[in-house]
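Give me the fold.
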Amino acid sequence: MTAATILVADDDKAIRTVITQALGREGYEVRTTGNAATLWRWVSEGDGDLVITDVVMPDENGLDLIPRIRKIRPNLRILVMSAQNTLLTAVKATERGAFEYLPKPFDINELTQVVQRALSEPKSDSPAAQEIEVGDEALPLIGRSPAMQEIYRILARLMSTDLTVLINGESGTGKELVARALHDYGKRRNGPFVAINMAAVPRELIESELFGHEKGAFTGATQRNSGRFEQADGGTLFLDEIGDMPLEA
């Protein structure tokens, strides 16, 4: 069986050397370059089974290269690595079609695992990339710690989905900020973001608050009231403090 060929683009020679040695030990053939132009030439000639690219390079931004690669070779998976460790970088990489985002410095074992997954997981057609035109000053989340980098990566993977998400964390750790980031950069960004603190809603009013009621549905219901689910239609409903809700709810 022919070893997979991995194309690596990074203007840092030390990074290229480390990746070559690490992936070479795993049996992969690795070709490296310090610029985007050479990477583009290799890809356009049909070379490589996987691309690993940096974001900031002398001749072109790696994020700008992703759509071009996917246009001519949609099944070629791309891993993006960057020292620009922000949520926006992770989101942009994913939105433009990257398979995975790796913040620098990264763990070599993690890199080899991601490479193996990228080469082995079944390929499927991805939706067209959607550009996100916002500046770093608009970001709701900041931080460069390993824990925050993992949050960025998870969020970036969730942006293109339409799933219900459970956010765990102590009080004050920023669960609503995470929810807002998912909304602002996700598929439902054009819809409303509706938040409700479930701990502040009396037990007897939970059903009416969430699902609404019609005029005359109960004593005192003098007009129709739309519930939070209806208000959030097409957008995001954030149920805060759900752990304080009664079990029967």
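The chain has a mean pLDDT of 86.
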